[in-house]
Amino acid sequence: DYEIAGNIERKGNKLIADVSLLYIKKQKVNIVGKLKYFLNKDRLETEGAFEGFNIAGNFAAMKDDDKVSFALKSNEFSDLKTITAQFPLKEMVKSWIADKIVAKTYKLDSFVGKADIVDNALKLDISSLRGEATLKDIKVDFKEGLEQVLAKEIKLSYKNRALYFNLKNPTYKDRDLNGSKVAISNMKKGHI
User: Fold this and answer.
1) What DSSP line would sit under 22-49, residue for residue?
2) 60: nearest Cα among 75, 50, 48
3) What's the pTM value of the predicted model, to 2 decimals?
4) Could you please report the per-residue DSSP string of 74-103?
5) Helix, strand, or coil here: 125?
6) Cα gap 164→56, rounded to integer Å
């Protein structure tokens, strides 16, 4: 179920809409934005702002026949688990992104991906996912039983099924670890 409000007009072979409200009840997501639908091409282009899962930001998406591509970015927020729960990522990836790294604030600098529409459902192409986030005032639990690594900031990148951590001013037991980088790679099916 959803609620929608806006204006739509036809210009030639194109429908143009200004959506002032799209509320998706099940996910509790508010969306506002603009869309263009090309009648002769089965192509939809949309962009706007969203608020949901305790995150606010901007998006752009395109549907061309049964192919979908999207891009998101957010304002700062305080809980990363709300977004990682929405994607079929491996539990190990979710754990590293949301449990082992705890930050005061998170910001999704970019998140892009592709999907196919199969039997009226969206099938996400996991290999197409790319993302970058900035985390501030971080505590990292690399291994149970060890003290946490502290860092002023981490640039977190996800691409090619690998997770990369670029730490700014990291310390471990009051030791300077500047220049340290961490990567978790080979996250292909069956490897983690």
Assistant:
1) EEETTTTEEEEEEEEEETTTTEEEEEEE
2) 48
3) 0.79
4) E-EES-SHHHHTTS---HHHHIIIIISEEE
5) strand
6) 24
Question: 86-123: per-residue pLDDT in tens?
Answer: 777 778 777 777 788 889 999 999 999 999 999 988 89
Residue 10 CB coordination number (10 Å): 10
Helix (H, G, I), strand (E, B) or coil at 189: coil
Radius of gyration of the chain (CA): 19
- Determine the 3-state secondary structure of 8 from DSSP: strand
DSSP letter, residue 148:
P
Buried b (16+ CB within 10 A) or exposed e, 107-146: bbeebbbbbeeeeeeeebebeebebbbbbeebebbeeeee
8 Å CB contact between 163 and 184: yes
Closest CA to 59 of 19, 10, 92: 19
